[in-house]
Fold each of these.
Amino acid sequence: MVVRHINPEGLHRSPAFSQAVVVEQPAKTIYIGGQNGVDAEGKVVGPTVGEQALQVFRNLALILESEGASLANIVHWRIAVVEGHSFDEGVAAFQQVWNRADPPPAITVHVVSALGPGFLVEIDAVAVV
Amino acid sequence: MVVRHINPEGLHRSPAFSQAVVVEQPAKTIYIGGQNGVDAEGKVVGPTVGEQALQVFRNLALILESEGASLANIVHWRIAVVEGHSFDEGVAAFQQVWNRADPPPAITVHVVSALGPGFLVEIDAVAVV
Amino acid sequence: MVVRHINPEGLHRSPAFSQAVVVEQPAKTIYIGGQNGVDAEGKVVGPTVGEQALQVFRNLALILESEGASLANIVHWRIAVVEGHSFDEGVAAFQQVWNRADPPPAITVHVVSALGPGFLVEIDAVAVV
C-alpha cells in the first residue's frame, strides 16, 4: 500500500488536517458508518460535545483495531456537529487521542440541524490498510 | 472481491446498519450521487418522506441493476433528511426494499436545513462489485 | 484505469452531474477534504457564494494538478452551502471552470446550518487517476 498525505503549495497548512490523501494499492478499504457518542449498549455517554466526541474517537479506534488498524489509517473523515454547539471540545478530544507523529486525515466539517436523538456529533470515515 | 460487514465487540448492534464494511479487491467501485425522490423526468414523486424515500431506493436499485448489481452491493450510504421531517417513513421504505438476509451497509444520517427544491430526503452511496 | 460515467434509462439526465461513476482499477484514489473559499494564507476570499465557490474550484484544481490530475478526475463531490444562501452562483462558477467536453461527477448537495467561520460553501471530493 502507498498512502501520501498532501498539502500542495498554494494552499494553507493546518496541523489539524491534510488537504488530501492519495491512496495506491490498498490491501483493504474500510467504510465506517457515522459513529456517535454511544457506549456498547447504544446509550449516549453524556450531554456535551467533548464527552461524545471522545467516545466517537474510541468507537472509531475500536472498529479499526478489530481490523488490525488504528486511527492513523483514516484517510478522510466527515464530522457533523449539531447547530448551536461548537466543535472546539471535539478538537480537544482529537488532540487527546491523536498521535501527533501521524499525518492527519482529510477532513470535512458540517454544522447540521440535528442528528439522531441526543447526538451532538457524528463522524464517519474511510480508512485504508 | 471480498466484502465483510463488521460489528466489533464493544459496539452496539442494529439490524438497520453495519458499523463498518471492509472491502478487498473490488472489481469495481460505484460512486452514486445523491438520489432524490424524483421520477424519470426529474419530477418529485410526492410530498412525503415515505414516498420520496421509496423512490430514492428505486433509483439506487435502477443504477445498480444497470451495472449488474443490487442494493446489497452498497457498502456505505449517507442519508440527509430536511429539518422538521422524520426519517421514520424512510426506515419503513427501507424495510420494504431491503432483503433481510443481506447484511446492511454502514450508514450516516444528517438532518439538514434544506435540499434541492421540493426534496425532503437525499441518499448518496458507495457500492462495490 | 477504467472510469464510466453512467446515466441509466429511467433516471432523468442533467448536464450538471452524472447519476453515478463506475471505477475499475484506479492507479490511485485521491480523497480531498472539504475545500473552502480561502487563499494560500487561509483567508476567506470574499463574502459571496460566487467568489468562494470559484476559489474552492481553484483549490480543488491545485490539489489535483499536484498529482498530475484535473477537475475531470473527480468522480464524486459533495457540496455544502450555508442556509439562506443559494448555490446558483456556485453553478455559474462551475460552468466557468468546467470543461464541457468532460462528463461531470456524481454530486451531492446539502444546505447546512453553518460551516467554519465565514465559509458559505464547502466541497469535498473523491478523484481517481
Note: The longest strand of chain A covers residues 74-82.
Amino acid sequence: MSNSESSKRDDVSSSQSSSAGEPQTDSPSILPSIMGEIGFIGLGRMGAAMAANLVAARRPVIAYVRRKEQIEQLKPLGISATTDMGDLLDCQLVISMLPDDDALRQVVMGSKDDHLAGLAAGLMPGAIHLSMSTISTACAAQLSLEHTRHGQGYVAAPVFGNPDAAKARQLFIVAAGAAADVVRCQPIFDCLGQRTFVVGADQREANLIKLLGNMMTATTLEMLAETIAVLRKRGLDPQPFLEIMTSTMFGGRAHRIYGDKIVRQTYAPGFMLPLVLKDVRLALAEAENAGSPMPSVGVVRDRLITAIARGYGDLDWSVLGQIAAEEAGLAPLQQPLAK
Amino acid sequence: MSNSESSKRDDVSSSQSSSAGEPQTDSPSILPSIMGEIGFIGLGRMGAAMAANLVAARRPVIAYVRRKEQIEQLKPLGISATTDMGDLLDCQLVISMLPDDDALRQVVMGSKDDHLAGLAAGLMPGAIHLSMSTISTACAAQLSLEHTRHGQGYVAAPVFGNPDAAKARQLFIVAAGAAADVVRCQPIFDCLGQRTFVVGADQREANLIKLLGNMMTATTLEMLAETIAVLRKRGLDPQPFLEIMTSTMFGGRAHRIYGDKIVRQTYAPGFMLPLVLKDVRLALAEAENAGSPMPSVGVVRDRLITAIARGYGDLDWSVLGQIAAEEAGLAPLQQPLAK
Amino acid sequence: MSNSESSKRDDVSSSQSSSAGEPQTDSPSILPSIMGEIGFIGLGRMGAAMAANLVAARRPVIAYVRRKEQIEQLKPLGISATTDMGDLLDCQLVISMLPDDDALRQVVMGSKDDHLAGLAAGLMPGAIHLSMSTISTACAAQLSLEHTRHGQGYVAAPVFGNPDAAKARQLFIVAAGAAADVVRCQPIFDCLGQRTFVVGADQREANLIKLLGNMMTATTLEMLAETIAVLRKRGLDPQPFLEIMTSTMFGGRAHRIYGDKIVRQTYAPGFMLPLVLKDVRLALAEAENAGSPMPSVGVVRDRLITAIARGYGDLDWSVLGQIAAEEAGLAPLQQPLAK
Amino acid sequence: MSNSESSKRDDVSSSQSSSAGEPQTDSPSILPSIMGEIGFIGLGRMGAAMAANLVAARRPVIAYVRRKEQIEQLKPLGISATTDMGDLLDCQLVISMLPDDDALRQVVMGSKDDHLAGLAAGLMPGAIHLSMSTISTACAAQLSLEHTRHGQGYVAAPVFGNPDAAKARQLFIVAAGAAADVVRCQPIFDCLGQRTFVVGADQREANLIKLLGNMMTATTLEMLAETIAVLRKRGLDPQPFLEIMTSTMFGGRAHRIYGDKIVRQTYAPGFMLPLVLKDVRLALAEAENAGSPMPSVGVVRDRLITAIARGYGDLDWSVLGQIAAEEAGLAPLQQPLAK
C-alpha cells in the first residue's frame, strides 16, 4: 500500500464537476467511454439519490433490488429495476452502495444460500465495479483481488455527504484504483458529486481516508457536545461560543453544520447511530491493525453505545450533544424514538 | 452568570478593526476616551508584541517589569518601562497579560512579601483594568469584585492567537464587562486584534469561552495526530488525507494550520506544553465545577503529561503529533530539547 | 439467556477436586460415565498440560494434531496423537482448547478447503463436545445449536489460569450446559482443575464470565501499572505500596501475582499480548452487543496496541507495567523481543 | 523523597495491634511516652470514632471544635471539647483528621481572619502533630517544614477504612515521619487501628500511598460496575460472576465488600462522592506533578462528575455501579437524595 508517488501536494488530483448532464469529453480518447446502462446495487437513501442523478444526467440505470415492490418505488425516479442480478451482468459499469462489508462481499462473491452468482463471476472482462460503500480496507483488498482474477476493474470511491448532499450532487468523492479505470469513471463522478479526489492506485487508501474522515467528524461532534454542555450547565447560551469558534479557528463545514444542530438540539434522522457505530468499529479495527491507538475515538464509541442503549438509535449522530448534556445531569429527551 | 439576554444571534456584537494607528472616533461621546499613558503588566512574548502595537498606534505605554535589564530591552520597541508599579497607578487604563491566576491575583491584590500594593488599592476610581490573560472564571469573579469595591472597572478580554498573530494585529478578542467599560476599551482592541466579540457583562463568560476554545483546538490537534499516525503506520503519506479534509469538512484555520504542522512534523516553539497543560487543568476544573465531564480533554491531558515527561515541554502543542506517532511505535525525536 | 434460577447465592454449585487419578463416583448412577479414550483438539501450551493431566489420571487421550511431528512430541507425555480427526469420532467426549472462534468453528463445522468433516457431523449422538476455549458468546450459541441438531451435547467450560496452573491442576473452571452433560463432565473437571463453578444451562454465560473475568485482571494490571509508575517517577520504591495494598484491601491472587511481576519488572512470556488483545476485542464486542460501554477496558486496549507496536508482543500482559513507565518518560526495554 | 532504605521487603515494618486499652510497653525506653491529654482536631464521623477509641483506651482527649453545641454532643463519647484551640497547646500530641489541605493548613499556620494562632506557632518544642487526614504531598511537605522550624515533630499517618472500621479499631494506618516520632506515636496507633505500616521518614510518602490506594479502590469499583452492567443488560444475575471472581483471582477485601454492594445495588452513605472526587483531584494532581498519566483514574473522574450532577452526591462511591447501569440505558434511581 505504498503511496510514495503522492508525497507532493499536487498529487491529489481533483476535478470540479462540469455542469450537470454533460459527460466530460476530455478523458484520454484511447480509453473507451462507459456506454449503455449503468448497473446499480444498493438503492437505500444514498443510493437512490445517486442513481436518480445519473438518470437526470441521461445515464440510463438498471438497478438490482431484492424485493419486487421496490421496482415500482423506483419508477418515479426514472430508474429501471430488476430482482435478477443477471440483468446487470452486461453492464460496462456497476456501482454498489451497500451498508457493510458482508453485504458487499455477498454481491461480489455470490452466495450459495441465495443462489446468487456474484459480480466477479458474472461481469465481462474489462467491466468496472465502482464500489462507493464505506467498507474496511481488508474487504477492499479482497474484492480488488477477486475482480482482478476475472480481468475486471475495481474502483473504490467512497463519498463524504449525507442523503441531502447526494440529492444536490454535492458529495465529495475519494477515488482509488487503476489509473485507466478511474479516468473512465470520472464522467460518472461528475454526475454525482461536487469534487473528486484521486488518491492513487491502491483502493484501500480511499476506504481508509473515508473511515478516518468520518472519525474526524465524529470526534468534532463529541467535542462540540462536551463544550456546549459545560456552557449550558453554567447557565450560558452556547450560541455566542459557537459563533466565535466558527468565526475564528473553526470556520469549516463540520463545525458550522453540526455546531448549529447541537446548539439548537435538533437531532432529526440523518446519519443514524447504528451506522455511525459500524464506522467507528471499522475505524478502530483499522487502527488496531495498523498498530496505532485512537483514544479519542474510544470516547465517541462509548457514548454512541450509551445513546443507542437509551433509545436514540434512530436519530442523527448530532445526538451526541444530547448525551453530553445527560452526562452533565440535564434531562433526557422525552420521546427519543419520535422522529 | 445569566446570559438570557444574549440568546439571539446578533447579541455577540463584533467590530472589525479600523486601520492601524487611527483610534476609533465613533464611541458614544458621553464616555470619556482613554487618555494618557496606558499601563501594561506582563511583557512576555504576547504582551511585548501587543504593547508595541499600542505604541505604533500612537498610544503611549508605561510597562511594569520586574527586572531592571528589561527596561533597556523594551526601549527599541518604543515602550517606556519601570520597576515601580506605583508609576502605573495614575493610568486610566492598565492592561495585564500574565501567565496564570496567581500572577494576576498578586498584581491586583498586592503581595506582602514583595511589598506590592496591588492595582485595586492603587488605581483611581473610574480607571479600568483590562485583563487579557487566560485565567479561571473564579479568579475573574474575585478580581471583578475587588475592583468594583474600589470603584474601578474590570474588563476581561482574553485573546485567541499566538505571538505571531499578536505582532500582526490578527488576534481575536473575546470581551466581557460593564458595557460602558467595554466601549471605552474598544479603540484599544482595534489596535491589538482583527476582531472583537463582546459577550456580555459577566467577565467570567469571556474567560470560559477562551478556555473552552483552547480545548477545541487541543482536541483537534489530538485527533489530527491520531489519524495521521494511523496513515503513517500503514505506509501512507498523510498529505492527501489532510488536503481532502481541509477541502471538504474541515476548512477552518485550526485544521489547516495545525494539520500542516503535524504532517510536516515541525514542532517549533509556539504554544509550549506547560502552558497548554495549565489551560487543560483550568478547563477541566471549570468542567468539574459545572458538573459536566469532558472525556475528550482527558485524553489530551494524559498525552501532554507524557510529552512533557519525554522532554518535549519546550515545543509547540503540535508535538501531540509526535506523541501519537510514538504511541504507534514510531521513533522518538532525536533531540527533543533542541529548538 | 435467562438466569433466573441462579439468583440465590448457592446456585453456583462448586465442587472441589477429588484427589488425582480417582474419578468421582458420586455422579447420579443413571448417567453413563464417560468411557474409553477422550478426544483432545488443541495441544498448545494449555491443552498439552491438560491432556497430560488426564493421562496421569488414567484417562486415555487421543489427540488430533495438524502436523505429523507433533505426534512424536506428545509421546513423552503419554498422549497418543493422530493427524486424522476421524480417529476421534468414536469418542464419548471430545475436549477442545483452541485460540479463537474461527479455529473452533472450523473444527465443529468442518472446512471444505481442508476436507475436514467437522465434529458435529462426525460425532455419535449422545457424545459431548467439551469446549474449554475462550470464545465469543455468539460462537458458543452457534456451536451449541449445531451439536443439538446432531443429538450431541455441548458443554462450555472455559478456565482461569495460565499454563503453569494447568500443569499443577490448579485451574478454575466455569461450566455451563445441559445439567446431565455437565454432571458427566465433572470427573474430567476434577482431573484438570482445583474447582469448578457451574453457572447454568446456557453455555454463553460461561464464556461471558470468562471474558469479563479476564477484563477484571487486565484492568487490575493496568491500574497497578499506573500507580507504580507514579511512585517510580517520584523516586520511591513501589514495594512498600504493593505490600500495603495486598495486606489490606487487595489480598487476592491477581494483585499479589501481577503486582509482584510489575514491581520486579519481569515480563517473561505467560499470557502473550496478541491473545490478550483478542480477548479485549471479544469483551468489547460483547459489551457493545449488550449496549453497555466499558471505558476502563478501552484504556487497556489502547495500551496493548502500543505495547505490541513497540515490539513487546511476545511478553506477558504484565508488560503493561512497562508501558505505564514509558508513558511517564522512563526508558524503554532494551531487548523487548528477548525472552 | 528518597526511599532507598526501604527497598527490601521487610522494610515496611508493621505492627499488629495489641489488645484494646493496653498501651504498648515495648517502645525504646529512651523515648518519653506521650503523657497527658491528647489534642484532637477534626471531630467528623471518622475523627469522633477515633477520639472515642482513645478515650476507651484510657487516653484522655481534649477536642477542638468550632461550634459550642458540639461540646455537648461529644460528652456522651467521653470526649472533653473546647472552642479555644489554645486549650490544646500544652498537649504533647495533637491529632488532626480534617477534610482537605486548606482546613489543615489553617489549623497549622493559623488564620488572620479567624484570629487563630496555629499549631506550629503554639505547640511546645518536642510536641508532635499527628496528621491523619488525606492530603496532598505538597501540603505534607509544607507542614512538616513549618513544624520543624518550630522544633516540633510532624508524623503523617493517613488511614484506610470507613467510619465503621474506625469505630471497630479496624483501620489500617500508613505512617511516616522521623523514626523517634513514629515510635512515640505507635501506642496511639495501636488504639486506633488493626495494623500500622511504617514507610520511612518522608511524610509525603505516606500521603501519596494513601491517595494511590484510594485510586486502586475507585478503579476497582468502576470495573466491577462496568462488568456487572454488561451482565445485567444480558439479563444475567451478576451474583455468580462476583462469587467466581472473589473465589478465584479477586479474593481481597475491596472486591468482596464493594462487589457485594454493587450487586445488591445498595449505595447507603459511606464514602460520599464529593470527598471521593476531592481525592481523585489530589491523585491526578500528584500524577501530573510526577509526570505520569493515570487514564484509568480519568474514567472514574468523569463518572463521579456525572453521578454528582445527577443528584447522587450524598451516596457512597459504590453508586458508580448505578452510573454504569445508566450508561447502559438502565433506569435511574428514583430517589437519589433519599438515604
Note: The interface with chain D takes residues 277, 281, 287-288, 291-295, 298-299, 301-303, 305-306, 308-309 of chain B (CB under 8 Å).
